[in-house]
Design brief:
The chain is α+β, with helices and mostly antiparallel strands and about 375 residues long. About 25% of the residues lie in helices and about 20% in strands. The chain has two domains: about 5-45 and about 260-375, no CATH class; about 65-260, Exo-inulinase, domain 1 (Jelly Rolls, Sandwich). It has seven helices and 15 strands. The protein is elongated and about 90 Å long. Bound molecules: magnesium ion. Magnesium ion binds near residues 130, 138, 140, 141 and 237.
Length: about 375
């Protein structure tokens, strides 16, 4: 940790300066990060209530809850011949793929599947099905319990692309869970800007670790990178085995930085646009504040994201007025304002340190003189 970060740990709630007496937060936004470190202006993460005893979380979109196949069709959009038995859907061989009516892209997907309890066949012929994200990239479903096959076609492989990191399967007849994090490939102007990724847990064991997609995958052919649409259905494969599925749900994922998301490292253009937006929102908030000192601090805070001569002038005017009011105080009256004044000093220091305001600004100097006169800067 660098010693110079003397204000690093002084994060505060935006607009609530007085309570803590501290100014702003850690390192300010930069060319590729619209938020400061420990930025309290940043939105709180959305609340999701976890599911209890295997139930989906509160924001999940349930695709199959064990009751019926009303959300599913065959590959031509017609009613499927797959059947529901004991709260699971079962593949009827030769009936073709089953497809969700819902279409979606990047997601967290939960699927449970079981190979037939009665073991028939070997290799790829035993309990074969597949989870096809957007109908394109297959996470293999296969009964590999004591049943070897080519590793890039194993259960939980990204089929034809990458073997699983482990074989964590339950015996045939028992359900296995896949928890899949899917990011689709993104192309811009015909150029791949993100290959897309699959992360998979099988029965809680990591089996795909952010595996790049290298295209949709396929049988015997090396995949080539290729653009995916924005959305597609979930497809489950009919590979001639009565594999069962249950408890299927997904949660859509927020956009990556590369497609307009505002977390992570952004392009300079996106960063600047977001910073201007944050600055404007803080100024909107400042406009509602009646206390001139708090209004001044909030306006100064907006300058951390983006400013302009008009804002500088408005904040400067408030700062001049505040510095004048403070310099007129002494004795008990001044002592009573110590916390507030020190907070303003720290705000000035922060802005000067990060070159958002000049360090020799009039009101800053004036406040410093007041502090020196009162002896508050002396170490005890
Ligand atoms: Mg398959």
């Amino acid at each position: 940790m660098k010693k110079t970060h003397f204000l690093l740990s002084l994060g505060i709630l935006a607009g609530a300066h007085t309570a803590s007496g501290q100014a702003f937060y850690g390192d300010p936004p930069d060319e590729t990060h619209p938020w400061a470190i420990h930025d309290h202006n940043r939105p709180q993460p959305p609340v999701v209530t976890p599911g209890k005893n295997g139930a989906p979380p509160s924001d999940a979109v349930v695709l199959f809850d064990g009751k019926n196949l009303s959300g599913w069709t065959n590959d031509k959009g017609e009613p499927t011949k797959w059947v529901v038995k004991d709260n699971a859907m079962e593949c009827v061989p030769k009936s073709g793929y089953i497809r969700s009516k819902q279409e979606f892209g990047d997601c967290q997907l939960h699927v449970e599947w079981a190979a037939p309890a009665e073991v028939k066949g070997s290799g790829q012929g035993r309990g074969n099905s597949g989870v096809f994200l957007m109908g394109m990239a297959e996470v293999q479903v296969l009964d590999n319990y004591q049943n070897p096959t080519y590793p890039d076609g194993f259960a939980a492989s990204v089929y034809g692309i990458n073997p699983p990191l482990a074989n964590a399967l339950n015996p045939p007849g028992q359900f296995n869970s896949y928890d899949i994090i899917f990011r689709r490939p993104i192309f811009k102007d015909g150029k791949q800007v993100d290959p897309g990724y699959l992360t998979v847990f099988c029965n809680g064991v990591l089996v795909q670790d952010h595996t790049p997609l290298e295209g949709p995958g396929g049988h015997k052919r090396r995949s080539k990178p290729r653009a995916f649409p924005e959305k597609g259905p979930l497809k489950l494969q009919d590979h001639g085995n009565p594999v069962r599925f249950r408890n299927i749900w997904y949660r859509p994922l927020p956009p990556r930085a590369i497609e307009g998301g505002t977390d992570g490292q952004l392009t300079p253009e996106t960063t600047m646009a977001k910073r201007q937006q944050i600055a404007a929102e803080i100024r909107e908030d400042a406009a509602k504040i009646t206390d001139p000192r708090k209004k001044m601090l909030r306006l100064m805070e907006s300058m951390i994201y983006g400013g302009g001569a008009r804002i500088q002038a408005e904040a400067g005017k408030l700062a001049n007025a505040y510095a004048r009011s403070v310099s007129a105080l002494d004795g008990q009256a001044l002592e009573q304002k110590k916390g507030e004044i020190m907070e303003v000093k720290r705000a000035f220091d922060y802005l000067a340190k990060h070159k958002i305001m000049p360090s020799d600004l009039g009101p800053k100097k004036s406040i410093e003189q007041t502090i020196e006169k009162a002896g508050w800067n002396k170490k005890k």
